[in-house]
UniProtKB/TrEMBL annotation:
Subcellular location: Membrane
UniProt keyword terms in alphabetical order: ATP-binding, Membrane, Nucleotide-binding, Repeat, Transmembrane, Transmembrane helix, Transport
Residues annotated as transmembrane: 296-317, 337-362, 382-403, 415-435, 441-463, 487-510, 936-961, 1118-1138
Domain ABC transporter as annotated: residue spans: 565-794
Membrane topology of the entry: Multi-pass membrane protein
The UniProt record lists the keyword Nucleotide-binding: yes
Secretion signal span: none
Annotated protein name in UniProt: Truncated ATP-binding cassette sub-family A member 2
Molecular function terms from GO: ABC-type transporter activity; ATP binding; ATP hydrolysis activity; lipid transporter activity
InterPro entries: AAA+_ATPase (IPR003593), ABC2_TM (IPR013525), ABC_transporter-like_ATP-bd (IPR003439), ABC_transporter-like_CS (IPR017871), ABCA (IPR026082), P-loop_NTPase (IPR027417)
GO terms for cellular component: membrane
Domain of life from the UniProt record: Eukaryota
Organism name: Pectinophora gossypiella (Cotton pink bollworm)
Length: 1146
């Protein structure tokens, strides 16, 4: 067997494997918990499969759409939107004859053309005669224009004056829109060549509701939907649908007529040029509505899947801090970084198994449709490597998140409770803000600091890309969800990687400032202190050293024993308080040194400095030849520790405990087996060798704790009250064990049992007020501090003190009364007269009746007398006030005895019936009140979490309410924010001098001279543009790219044009029409330019339907927030009752 002190220190790899073994053994000893952690994600994902199986993907054929005249009005707005065309009006600014003529002519032509196209065919079907050319006659035009000019068109002096047109709700049913020109045009007599105007429709389109669109229904601050659907948006609507509804809301018709009239006015003639709008066709595609639903449901399933695992990680890590296991392992040579690394890899392996099972569920093609479509899974198109990468990143982040949360708590039950609450709270930002597509990149990045919110965004983006070919490795930084935010999957990945670093840094920081009840906290600013960055030792200036070592009572040190621990001028200062002052002490091998001292004497601080747990202010400590500050790891590898409380792993057996700590000290193989067997036999735990420590009795746990300190041939053994909780027989057996095991070791023992210190202590050191007062063998201290013997005489009522004192003085001259209190009188006697004690006591017994006493006793000086004497001397000398007195133990005992005598039960009765029940209720409420007030941290967290949740809910409500403020103006062109887009242009038999030919050339020039040089114009020859588009988008991967880059196009012939739009973006149709009009204007005047804006106008009224919907939505959010907060409050109260049950207090 290896000699003590001759050792090979275990390397980091050995310690890491040992920790992994310990962690896995602990995990496997909880089979139900282990099974739940692995199966809960599988079961939750199985529910996803069930939901997925309810809706089969459907293969839809190629969809084409017809062209429609740009001036077409959708009369459904008169029914659904409440418009009254008989009282219709149009507003414009600024008031000017030229502009009024443009607006009146445009409105008149809009009415007449729609009458010709939609109303006249109905009238012609009636059995009445209609004069030919009625609608197209100039007379009818002039009559209608006059009516429009006088009754429909209203001019305002400025754009500011026009903003009040929707001051009343009724106005939205009467005023179609406002046409806002630049205020500088108020005095013009002819139109300038650089033209621009904004159409000011109501902020909420008339056909849309608040709940459907989230408030900002014109989407002027967005280009694409945040979450895109497979296939076309509104596949059955030739006009593009109701989000935002450019055609249905009459925006396109009005835009076309105003722009056409401006072109005619610049040209100087009535330009007879028809314009149509037409949606690009869409190739055959797979409609998978299940994935649209899963975009919002799937993140919730993932979050729930790992909630149980996250709570268990938080609880398991905090248990080791609560039970002092972490600090003990650290003291016995385990680096902190290895502790965290072992916990990480253990949890990562389990989560990796769960993630692989989840990946199988998500990627296997489980289903086949009736049409035989078998390539069908939850994630069909996204590669399994991308899914595995993101899922692994999320689970890694989860582990670090749990480490961080565990750092805030010292109790495992509290950590598990609030950790679970915080876990769900991190999902709230993504849940509440899911409807808002207008969040900026910075705001989304901030919400991604919340673990589950980042996960939610990531999976939503993955599912959104599923419908367009899947998220490939090269797509992480592409395919923006919205033009304004451009928040992509790569941003989520970056934020989650950043979270991993941030969470671990916070965990390491909390480990220093909140180490738990057994660690020593550092100041919150420790990381800015010089000693944190500099490894060199720093000695603090603490002023003049007033310590007086001349009063130290010290026996000569042994000269034939090696020194195990050398303490030199040790000092520790906390602020202005000197906890340990100039302590110098040697601890020798083959000896047990007992360290005694009152509470606050500096014992715990000294022990903490010996183990390297507390930084030394000045001085030095050498353990087994290693400097504890400079060679901490080597010094700790020689330390064995038995703390005051049982520090054992509940799941490990007796044998496994000894095996773990012996291997930690470097033992292995046969040597390890011999060490374990020897210790088990010495500890008398043979029958309990395979019992888990949780099943041992209190005394057996203390013996095992001492065995842990002794195992591994520890050279320096620290024993903090090792026999507390033991029965007398076990105490005696442990004393014998320590006496045998001290050979080759330096043992330091603290105890409150003076007999234990007297028997075990080879040397006793007594501290008081941070200073070492005396050190030496028990015999030396008793001889130095003791008076030899004390005679105690128990008096009767008529005790004759003078006679008794005179008798004693005959044998021992000069003896005086030491104390005369109560029924006892005491005398102090020196050792030099011990030979006359027998004669004196016989004489005293013979004269008992004369002196009148009951009994007597002769006591030798004990170590307790020495301890009390040293403590009293220190207090007396440290008192500045001379009037301060020190009460003796006899005074205190007499006072307590008198007080106890008063507890004779008088004044108390036996309550019965309702009075007894009321008394019980009051007592229970008092207990609950005391528990709550003394658990102030839990109470504070309970209140704070509830307040934060309610405030967050109210904040989201306020955010939703304010979403209609500061509505953004959008330019209807590709000139800004559309880098890399492509535009198609085609023609049909154009003559060189026709308006269509000139417009085509001008259309091409718009994109050649655009601000963004990356725009492309593609001229399609000999092929219809719709067929060319289908050829380009036939492949799914090509469609995924082109849906964001090929948005508009145009086809020209001599007398008409068709504005093509994809409808994947919100504003495609209006942008395409604006580009055609700009080309027409350049065709008639190459120097001219036309820009159109969509600038919704804020309504100054409260729509009752919108308000009711909004109130219902916000009420639901508030009820959800309050309900969640109350659940937290309930959980906290339940926790106290669970603790009562666990402690058997009930």
């Amino acid at each position: 067997m290896r000699a003590r002190g001759e050792r090979k220190e275990a390397g980091s790899w050995v310690k890491f494997r040992l920790l992994m073994w310990k962690n896995f053994v602990q995990q496997l000893r909880h089979p139900v918990q282990t099974a739940a952690e692995l199966l809960l994600p599988v079961l939750t994902m199985s529910l996803v499969l069930v939901l997925r199986s309810q809706i089969d993907p459907e293969v839809l054929e190629t969809r084409t759409y017809p062209p429609i005249p740009a001036h077409t009005l959708n009369y459904s707005v008169t029914v659904l939107g409440g418009m009254n065309l008989t009282r219709m009006s149009m507003a414009f600014s600024p008031e000017n004859a030229v502009l009024r003529d443009v607006v009146s002519s445009a409105t008149t032509k809009l009415l007449l053309k729609n009458m010709r196209d939609q109303v006249l065919p109905i009238i012609e079907a009636l059995p009445i005669e209609i004069p030919p050319g009625l609608v197209n006659s100039s007379q009818v035009y002039e009559i209608v224009k006059l009516f429009v000019d006088e009754n429909v068109v209203t001019g305002y002096n400025s754009s500011a004056a026009m903003r009040g047109i929707y001051a009343e709700e009724e106005a939205t049913r009467r005023v179609i829109a406002g046409i806002e020109f630049d205020d500088s045009l108020r005095e013009i007599t002819e139109l300038p060549l650089d033209l621009s105007y904004a159409l000011r429709f109501p902020e909420r389109p008339r056909l849309n509701s608040f709940f459907m669109t989230g408030g900002r229904t014109w989407r002027t601050d967005n280009v694409f939907p945040m979450f895109e659907v497979p296939g076309p948006r509104f596949p059955y609507s030739w006009e593009g649908g109701n989000d935002p509804g450019y055609v249905n809301e009459m925006f396109i018709a009005l835009q076309h007529m105003i722009s056409s009239e401006l072109v005619s006015e610049v040209a100087g003639v009535n330009l007879d040029f028809d314009v149509h709008i037409q949606r690009y066709p869409h190739p055959a595609y797979i409609m998978d509505l299940a994935k649209e639903a899963l975009q919002f449901l799937f993140p919730s399933f993932i979050m729930i899947s790992f909630s149980y695992t996250a709570i268990n990680i938080i609880r398991s890590v905090t248990v080791e801090k609560e039970m002092q296991l972490k600090e003990t392992m650290k003291i016995m040579g385990l680096p902190t970084w290895l502790h965290w690394m072992a916990w990480f890899f253990k949890q990562f392996i389990y989560l990796l198994i769960a993630s692989v099972l989840i990946l199988v569920i998500l990627k296997v093609n489980w289903f086949t449709t009736e049409e035989g479509f078998s390539d069908y899974a939850v994630f069909t198109n996204t590669p399994w490597t991308v899914l595995f990468f993101f899922l692994t990143l999320y689970l890694t982040c989860t582990i670090f998140f749990c480490f961080m949360i565990s750092g805030f708590f010292s109790k495992a039950s509290t950590a598990a409770l609030f950790g679970g609450v915080i876990w769900f709270l991190t999902y709230i930002p993504a849940f509440l803000l899911a409807m808002d597509v207008n969040m900026s990149t910075s705001l989304q990045a901030v919400t991604c600091l919340m673990l589950n919110s980042a996960m939610s965004y990531g999976f939503q983006l993955l599912l959104a890309r599923e419908s367009t070919g899947g998220m490939q490795w090269g797509d992480f930084m592409t395919s923006p969800a919205t033009d304004s935010s451009r928040f992509v999957f790569g941003h989520v990945v970056i934020m989650m990687a950043l979270n991993c670093v941030l969470y671990m840094l916070i965990a390491l920081y909390l480990e220093q400032v909140l180490p738990g009840p057994y660690g020593t906290p550092k100041p919150w600013y420790f990381f800015v202190q010089r000693q944190f960055w500099c490894s060199s030792k720093t000695t603090h200036d603490i002023g003049t050293d007033n310590s007086d070592t001349s009063s130290l009572t010290k026996e000569s040190d042994p000269t034939d024993l090696p020194i195990g621990v050398k303490i030199q001028n040790l000092k520790k200062v906390y602020g202005s308080n000197v906890a340990v002052n100039n302590l110098s002490l040697n601890i020798y091998d083959d000896q047990i040194t007992v360290l005694l001292g009152h509470n606050g004497a500096g014992k715990s601080t000294t022990i903490s400095m010996l183990t390297g747990n507390v930084d030394i202010t000045s001085g030095s400590v050498t353990v087994a030849g290693y400097d504890i500050e400079k060679q901490t790891s080597s010094a700790r590898s020689h330390i064995g520790l038995c703390p005051q409380h049982n520090v054992l792993f509940n799941e490990l057996t007796v044998k496994e405990h000894l095996q773990f700590f012996s291997r930690l000290k470097g033992f292995s193989g046969k040597e390890l087996d011999e060490e374990i067997e020897t210790l088990i036999e010495k500890l008398e735990l043979q029958e309990k060798r395979d019992y888990q420590s949780a099943g041992l009795s209190g005394g057996q746990k203390r013996r095992l704790g001492v065995g842990v300190a002794l195992c591994g041939a520890a050279k320096v053994v620290l024993l903090d009250e090792p026999t507390s909780g033991m029965d007398p027989a076990s105490r005696r057996a442990l004393w014998d064990l320590l006496q045998r095991e001290k050979k080759g070791r330096s043992m330091i023992l603290t105890t409150h049992f003076m007999d234990e210190a007297d028997i075990l202590g080879d040397r006793v050191a007594i501290m008081a007020d941070g200073r070492l007062q005396c050190v030496g063998s028990p015999y030396f201290l008793k001889r130095h501090y003791g008076v030899g013997y004390t005679l105690v005489v128990v008096k009767k009522e008529d005790f004759r003190l003078d006679t008794c004192t005179e008798l004693i003085n005959r044998y021992i001259p000069g003896t005086v009364v030491k104390e005369d209190r109560g029924t006892e009188v005491t005398y102090s006697m020196t050792n030099e007269y011990s030979h006359v004690f027998e004669s004196m006591l016989r004489d005293l017994e013979a004269k008992a009746d004369e002196i009148n006493f009951k009994n007597y006793g002769l006591l030798a000086t004990t170590l307790e007398d020495v301890f009390m004497s040293v403590g009293t001397d220190v207090v007396a000398t440290s008192d500045v006030d001379d009037n301060t007195t020190v009460s003796s133990s006899a005074d205190t005992l007499a006072f307590e005895y008198d007080s106890l005598e008063k507890l004779d039960g008088t004044g108390y009765g036996d309550e019965k019936g309702i009075r007894l029940i009321c008394q019980h209720v009051v007592a229970i409420w008092m207990k609950l009140f005391l528990v709550l007030t003394r658990s102030w941290l839990i109470l504070l967290l309970q209140v704070l979490v509830s307040l934060v949740q309610i405030i967050a809910t109210l904040g989201v409500m306020q955010y939703v309410i304010s979403m209609t403020e500061h509505i953004q103006r959008r330019e209807l062109s590709l000139a800004e924010g559309f880098a890399g887009t492509e535009t198609l242009v085609s023609f049909k038999g154009l003559s060189p001098t026709s308006t269509g030919s000139l417009a085509k050339a001008a259309y091409e020039s718009i994109f050649v001279t655009a601000n963004n040089p990356t725009m492309e114009i593609t001229v399609v020859d000999n092929t219809p543009i719709d067929e060319y588009y289908l050829e380009r988008t036939d492949d799914v991967s090509a469609m995924a790219v082109l849906r964001h880059s090929l948005l508009i196009g145009a086809t020209f012939d001599d007398h008409s044009a068709t504005a093509w739009f994809s409808n994947f973006g919100y504003h495609d149709v209006a942008m395409s029409l604006a580009a055609v009009h700009a080309a027409l204007l350049r065709a008639v005047n190459p120097a001219a330019n036309l820009t159109v804006y969509n600038h919704p106008l804020e309504a100054n009224y409260v729509n009752q339907n919108d308000m009711q919907t909004m109130v219902a939505f916000l009420s639901m959010q508030l009820a959800s927030g309050i309900g969640s907060s109350l659940s937290i409050v309930s959980a906290v109260f339940i926790m106290f009752y669970i603790k009562v049950g666990c402690t058997c207090a009930s």
